[in-house]
Design goal:
- The protein is of the alpha/beta class.
- The protein has two domains: 2-8 and 254-381, Aspartate Aminotransferase, domain 1; 14-248, Aspartate Aminotransferase, domain 2.
- Helices cover 42% and strands 13% of the residues.
- The chain has helices at residues 14-26, 36-55, 69-82, 99-107, 125-132, 154-163, 183-186, 224-227, 235-248, 256-278, 305-314, 334-339, 357-381, and strands at 2-3, 63-66, 90-94, 111-115, 138-140, 167-171, 190-194, 205-209, 282-285, 295-300, 317-318, 346-350.
- Strand 5, helix 6 (154-163) and strand 6 form a beta-alpha-beta unit.
- The longest helix is centred in the last third of the chain and has 25 residues, at 357-381.
Length: 382
């Protein structure tokens, strides 16, 4: 099987998995306890915390370890507005944010506004400026879109947010560990990341905070994470996340992450060119340039997306269809709808370090064959 769903979850980095197993098997103590075993656990926790925070340009006292990207997002949105009650009771988000971001905003009790995007998925800066003129406590803007890969103009949005005294939350789950991601460089106040997306294992993520960002806990009951999140820290997962980042070295322009991104981008560009040439009435979404290196989104007219995923799965290719984390609703992708793009037969292909040119060749053939067969079956049924 060719696994082409890395935007959902990437397989363990071998060094991260080894670290996880070692820590899980040897360090069982609560890091808050004063006995020797607790002190060893705390030393390891703080070392991993410093490594993770430093990788994203933050000091170790400005990071909250979480159970993953979804919790980090909710801490940013709900915990952020709860700690900033004097700001206007409005949250502004791009129309293509991850469903976790939009759901958190809806749950806040604040008025919520969405800013349109263009046909490539980039946020409309004039529209955002207009919404900010009405007042906002928080703006949500992802670094790279999880469905079509579009990189957003985060630095420009950060400048607009500061001009209008609004806080900025950046969902970097699709870029952390793959591309250089720096809290200060982006101009973000809240930065949410997930270890599952870069081989650091599931069940671990983080929220990074700028000097001006405040955040209230969603979970209470103890003083862990500097009173920002209650509950025993997942030490094996946190150390594995740190190890994956150290191994990938995403800030090194010649490091493993940069090499993997370069290879993935070359394959991404091949897919964008070859898929529309392989079968008629196919649209590839998002930009050629200014995109995450690992994501290709394609739609085939006269096809059902889930049927297409099943057909590709039967031929040995694991891909995804629909809006991430909302697949069971049967609704078309809100991202593609916002872009005014073709939603029929939507498939997201996301590449990993082990993806090869042979995988791309095979996928193009399988995709063309599956689309042709599904269209033929549909005509026959009619």
């Amino acid at each position: 099987m060719a696994y082409l769903d890395h935007a959902s979850a990437t397989p363990w980095h071998p060094a991260a998995l080894a670290t996880y197993q070692q820590v899980a098997g040897s360090l069982i103590a609560d890091p808050t306890r004063r006995h020797a075993a607790g002190r060893r656990a705390r030393d390891l926790l703080e070392s991993a915390r410093g490594a993770i925070a430093g990788m994203f340009g933050a000091p170790p006292d400005r990071i909250v370890m979480t159970s993953g990207g979804t919790e980090a997002i909710h801490l940013a949105v709900l915990g952020g507005v709860a700690a900033n009650r004097t700001r206007p009771r409005r949250i502004v988000s791009s129309a293509v944010e991850h469903s976790a971001v939009l759901a958190a905003a809806d749950a806040s009790g604040y008025a919520c506004a969405q800013v349109a995007v263009d046909r490539l998925g980039r946020v409309d800066l004039d529209g955002l400026r207009s919404e900010l003129g009405k007042g906002a406590a928080l703006v949500n803007l992802m670094h790279a879109n999880h469905e079509v890969g579009t990189l957003q103009p985060v630095a420009e949005v950060a400048a607009l947010c500061r001009e209008h005294d609004a806080l900025l939350h950046v969902d970097a789950c699709q870029t952390a560990g793959r591309l250089p991601v720096d809290l200060g460089g982006l101009g973000a106040d809240y930065l949410s990341v997930s270890a599952a997306k870069f081989g650091g294992g599931r069940g671990t993520g983080a929220l990074l905070l700028s000097p001006r960002a405040r955040q209230r806990p969603l979970l209470a009951g103890d003083e862990r994470e500097r009173r920002r999140r209650a509950g025993l820290e997942h030490l094996p997962g946190i150390t594995a996340m740190a190890e994956a980042l150290l191994q990938l070295a995403p800030n090194d322009p010649y490091g493993p992450a940069a090499r993997a991104a370069s290879n993935a981008d070359a394959l991404r560009r091949q897919l964008r060119e070859r898929l529309p040439a392989a079968v008629d009435d196919v649209a590839v979404h998002g930009p050629d340039d200014g995109a995450a290196p690992h994501i290709v989104a394609v739609s085939a007219l006269y096809c059902d997306g889930e049927a297409l995923v099943s057909a590709l799965d039967a031929t040995g290719f694991a891909v995804h269809s629909g809006s991430s984390c909302a697949t069971t609703s049967g609704e078309p992708s809100h991202v593609l709808v916002a872009m005014g793009a073709l939603t029929h037969g939507h498939v997201r292909v996301s590449l990993g370090p082990e993806t090869t040119a042979a995988d791309v060749d095979g996928f193009v053939r399988a995709f063309a064959a599956a689309v042709t067969k599904l269209r033929g079956d549909s005509l026959g049924a009619a």
